[in-house]
Amino acid sequence: MRRIALCAAMALLTACCFANPALADGQTTVEIDSHVTPVIRAFTPKTTSSTLALNLTLAGENGTSAATLRRAVLKFTYGAKVNGNLFPSCTAEKIRNHEPCPKASKIGSGTGLGTVGDPPNAAEEPIVITLYNGPKGKSVVFRIQGDQPAVIDVPFEAPLKTLSGGSYNFQLTVEVPEILQRIAGLPISLKYLNVKVGASRKVKGIKRGWIETLICPPKALVPISGDFDFVEGSAPFHIDTYIHCGA
Questions:
Q1: Quick check: pTM over 0.85?
Q2: What's the CA dihedral at 93, 94, 95, 101 to 10 degrees?
Q3: pLDDT higher than threshold 60 for residue 1
Q4: Which tens digit of pLDDT belongs to each residue from 32-90?
Q5: Domain-located, residue 68
Q6: How far, CA to CA in Å, does 231 sit from each of 60, 147, 239?
Q7: Quick one: which of 87, 32, 26, 78 has its CA closest to 55?
Q8: Which of 37, 101, 126, 176 has the least CB density, counted as fewest CB within 10 Å?
Q9: What's the CA dihedral at 128, 134, 177, 193 to 10 degrees?
Q10: 212-247 burial string, b = 16+ CB within 10 Å, else e?
Q11: For residue 185, how far is the Cα from the chain centroid?
Q12: Mean of per-residue pLDDT scores for the chain
């Protein structure tokens, strides 16, 4: 499943090896634009199935590409409930072994764009992301797929844990596999990643969401934090920002 076509590798080498292979020159920054839907104006004792949209944009200084991402840690505050234990699960191993995931284990999807080399000679790799509920709801399984210029299909698991005390309730830790850090010996830079997480199913005749919220008034802001570590070329980056209620 971890395939890199020979012709794609040659294309990458041709496009990038004769360009300056350096990526970020200085601090890589990450912007987070996040929204929860639907808007819930009135407080009720019952939670509502919700969708979280999370958009990340990465950039280096002076127009350079972002440094190669090694790890991302996202922390989410109180106000939402995650019901991974109510959903079927899948694993990265099952995907690698070409075994189908249960239909209701899919909890989200998205797109992204990776690049190899520096502009204007960077080779772009559009990617498709599929997200699955991990075993017992204690992780999120990422499946990253791309067709051009390299053929990739990489599943991996990101632990999701509940925090006790402090300002945040949930923490998602994404360790980027080495195969997604370099292709054909060349470092990979992530330009953007846009995902939506939100699934629902009937449990004992009642609609339940993978994410549920009690209240989300229009234009309300909910804290979120992110910590990003890179392979080289940039110091770690931290951001404190907000999730917006409403699209």
A1: yes
A2: -140
A3: no
A4: 999 999 998 887 788 999 999 999 999 999 878 899 999 999 999 998 999 999 999 99
A5: yes
A6: 14, 24, 18
A7: 32
A8: 126
A9: 40
A10: bbeebeeebebebbbbbbbbebbeebeeeeebbbee
A11: 23
A12: 88
195 inside domain:
yes
Please indicate, yes or no, if residue 1 is contained in any of the structural domains.
no
Token reading at 244: 């917006």
Q: Where are the beta strands (DSSP E) in the chain?
A: 29-37, 48-49, 51-59, 69-77, 80-82, 106-116, 123-133, 139-146, 152-162, 168-175, 182-183, 186-197, 200-203, 206-209, 211-213, 221-230, 237-245
Whether residue 94 is contained in a domain is answered as yes
Please check whether residue 66 is in contact with residue 59, taking contact to mean a CB–CB distance below 8 angstroms. yes
The total domain count for the chain is 1
The tens digit of pLDDT for each residue in 173-231 reads 999 999 999 887 788 999 999 999 999 999 999 999 999 998 899 989 999 999 999 99
Tokens for 228, please give them.
């990003």
